[in-house]
Structures are given as C-alpha cells and as structure tokens.
Amino acid sequence: MKTKNLTRIEIRKRGIEALIRELGPGGMIAFIQEFETGYGDYAKERHQWLDSYDIDTICKEIENTRNVKKIN
Length: 72
Fold this sequence. Notes:
The chain has 72 residues and is mainly α. The protein has helices at 8-33, 42-50, 55-71. It has one domain (8-71).
C-alpha cells in the first residue's frame, strides 16, 4: 500500500481501522493511550524527584526491590 498520495487524515483513518481490525476497539483505545500527549515540563520536574538521589540511595532501593520480589 502506498501512502504518498494519502492525506494525513486518510493515513490516520486507515491506521485506526487497522488497529480496530487487529486489536478490537478496546485494544485500539489502549494502544492510542500509550502515546497520549502529557503535560508539564518533564525535564524540569524530574529534577524535583531525582536531585535528592545519590548512587547509594539508588543501590539501596534496587536491593530492597529485589528482596521484596524474592519474598513474594
């Protein structure tokens, strides 16, 4: 199938039709939501979350997560 002569709207329509055909309506919605545009400034916000972490803290959290998985 060639897409050179299709408009962006036609490409989008055919893409949605293909997703529905292959995944069903619910699967199509779930797939589309994977690529939903977010909001905010992630680059700025991640510093609020990550600036307080150092390598020792990160290693301890990884170790704790592994230990919890071993218990379960």
